[in-house]
Amino acid sequence: SAVISQKPSRDICQRGTSLTIQCQVDSQVTMMFWYRQQPGQSLTLIATANQGSEATYESGFVIDKFPISRPNLTFSTLTVSNMSPEDSSIYLCSVETGAGGLTDTQYFGPGTRLTVL
Amino acid sequence: AQKVTQAQTEISVVEKEDVTLDCVYETRDTTYYLFWYKQPPSGELVFLIRRNSFDEQNEISGRYSWNFQKSTSSFNFTITASQVVDSAVYFCALSEGGRRGNMLTFGGGTRLMVKP
Q1: Distance CA B24, CA B107 (A)
Q2: Is residue A86 within 8 Å of residue A92, measured between CB atoms?
Q3: Mutate to test the interface with B, among A102, A112, A113 (most CBs of B within 10 A)
Q4: Tens digits of per-residue pLDDT, B13-61?
């Protein structure tokens, strides 16, 4: 498995502002993922982030709203831009350990609990 | 498209009862993986098990057991002699791999409440 940390663990923000969430892993990983979990809901994949390439976004999520950086194999950031109350969610990063094959398992960070007023 | 259904949104049991959480999935692939994750009130997602589509053997880990049946596209999770610490939301997930890594599709989750 991998040890994953996220910063901040929680935040309360005003609408119209932006928040950058950091995800740090204790080992080098190829694949990193960002998920959103709205209150009382399941997890939805926002995007997949590979080092050295543009993030790939899922339907309903766009780069202007959720820009992602992946500067190296142990770190990624997700920015939630121009926030509205509808962005209030838990944001989780996850990583795949291994070479990126089908046998890999995703492990999740502790999440960032965001509240937008 | 892949889909995971957890029909039970909430289950309440009394401590020491056995409880089974249902998971039904849909996929067109012959090769895929199924997962169970636990999300306690703290919010962190804890990996419990991974099962590949070619291995239908049931698995037991302590009080936890999993029943994978391809014929019914189900991957059910049983907790024996439940404890208060088992109270959490449990998610079943499916991965088909390949495209952009092992993208997980999650079910809606089942909230388990174990009362003392």
Answers
A1: 9
A2: no
A3: A102
A4: 999 999 999 999 999 888 888 999 999 988 889 999 988 888 888 888 8
